Amino acid sequence: MSDVSPKPATGPKNAVVILLDSLNRHMLGAYGGEEFQTPNLDRFAKRATRFTKHHTGSLPCMPARHDILCGALDFLWKPWGSVEIWEDAITYELRKAGVVTQLISDHPHLFESGGENFHIDFNAWDYQRGHEGDAWKTRPDPSWMGAPLQSRMGHHMPYDDSHTYFKGEPDFPGPRTMAAAANWISDNANHHDRFMLFVDEFDPHEPFDTPEPYASMYDKDWTEDTHMIWPPYMQGALEKGVLTKAQAKQLRASYGGKLTMIDHWFGKVMDALDAKNLWDDTVVILCTDHGHYLGEKDIWGKPGVPIYQALGHIPLMIAYPGVAPQTCDALTTSVDIFATLADIFGVNVRQRTHGHSLVPLIKGTKKEVREWLLTGVWGREVHYVDKRYKYVRAPKDVNAPLTMLSNRWSTMPTHFLSREQELPLPDERAYLSHMPGSKVPVIRQDWQAGEGKPFWAHTKFRGNHLFDLQEDGAEERNLAGSGLEADYAERLRAVLKELEAPDSQFTRLGFA
Question: Each residue of 81-95: b (16+ CB within 10 Å) or e?
Fold first, then answer.
């Protein structure tokens, strides 16, 4: 458990954290991508430390934000949820330390069941409305004259109404969020002794809806009136005929259009930082929660497959005052962002955390801060990653028992499933347990084989996988079953024991 006594701040006065959701590392110019234009992200990279072995931790959206804001992996214990009563987001301690914190976001899950209290300890928060599932409008704008959008799996989405209120590029949620961030910097940067601005931008997450010129920028051959903006969540969409080659190309191009659009508006934030000359006393962190499959291995969206590199190997760039642009090949993950901010501002939180500050890597006083990391989605495979190998451990037989520990019994909000379909409620078998590092009682519920599975655990497993990321970056040669797997299985078992993972994880993964 973290020491809650004060410690000296080690770094710059201020921090700006910009999280772009579903940002694909391999599509950024700064990481060698040539398919889409990202001039402002590349511009930022020219003044930053560019991390080359940064990986996801807990997935997807809200679990990843829990990693970053609370510093603790949660996918071993629960699927998707709020800040729990035994823990604090870093913003709570920053406020106590006199650091002004501001959230600017268009991310709807922050304000829905399962994510609704991450914003409360910011000094102020600004929610730009209308993205994806945001329940913003009850009917479309009657003056709307544009073409209809592609529907999502035949379901009416809040976005179907919201997008009719966007009359031009500046009205889209992503541009509005970035403009609000730039304006906040311009209006407030010199009025606070210390501040942290957290920009949680939902782009380039789907829907990949953009105005021209972005909508047609990367697919000149598309002749349909309606652009493809909702990817299917599945493996084998081309093979099974769910997508034609033209539709697959269009979906990828639509993602690229949104990426280039949000890159343009990210440039506005860069301009505000330039105008206020904040680079001398402000650390700027550019990160994401995960990538997004756009046809790699014929996978689309974020379906129930192992976390391949396209999804789990993510970008991280940090501009640190007084440090020249550089590349860092150390192994890092999302909880390390929390630890870095805590180190810079000299704060601790009361819960047990799992991250390591990246400041020593940036300053060159250390070459490594961790030898391994874990990443995964609750109820699915657990992934052990080191600098060379990725070991993917699937349930041995049936995906049971499945355990959730939480005092805020909520999960991913969906708009086409009932709450009963999303996550079963605790029943008479529930009992009080404890989280590692806490004496606060927590509700524990175990589900056995044959019971209705919670939402995230609905998947067909394909056994264990072991990839040599150094020699097989495309992850085409599965080394599971070799003598090397026994070594990595024991490493994973030891790490789960160190983290005090629930005993059910050992059982379902075949370690018991």
Answer: bbbbebbbbbbbbbb
Which domains occur in the chain, in start order? 14-321+350-373 (3.40.720.10), 374-508 (no CATH)
Q: Distance between alpha carbon 227 and the CA centroid of its chain, in Å? A: 26
C-alpha distance from residue 4 to each of 12, 54, 354, 435, 447 (Å): 21, 28, 15, 18, 35
Q: Whose CA is closest to 332, among 25, 38, 87, 12?
A: 25
Residues 332, 370 contacting (CB under 8 angstroms): yes
How far is residue 142's CA from residue 417's CA, in Å, rounded to a whole number?
Answer: 28
pLDDT digits (tens, 9 = 90+) for 78-110: 988 899 999 999 999 999 999 999 999 999 999
Q: Which residues, other chains included, contact 423 with Cβ-Cβ below 8 Å and sequence gap of 6+?
A: 79, 404, 409, 410, 411, 454, 455
> How would you write 439-506 as a 3-class SS string?
CCEEEEEEECCCCCCCHHHCCCCCCCEEEECCCCCCCCCCCCCCHHHHHHHHHHHHHHHHCCCCHHHH
Q: Cα(500)–Cα(502) distance, rounded to whole angstroms? A: 6
Q: Nearest Cα to 88, choosing from 69, 60, 102?
A: 69
pLDDT tens-digit map of 13-67 = 999 999 999 999 999 999 999 999 999 999 999 999 999 999 999 999 999 999 9
Please say whether the dihedral angle defined by the alpha carbons of residues 304, 308, 311 and 314, taken in this order, is positive or negative: positive
Torsion of CA 414, 416, 417, 422, to 10 degrees: -20
Largest CA-CA distance found in the chain, in angstroms, rounded: 66
Distance CA 325, CA 328 (A): 10
Residue in this structure with the two tokens 């609000």, named with its chain if needed: 180
Amino acid letter, residue 169: E
**Phi/psi at 285 (5° precision):** -115, 125
Helix (H, G, I), strand (E, B) or coil at 377: strand
Question: SS3 of 214, please?
Answer: helix
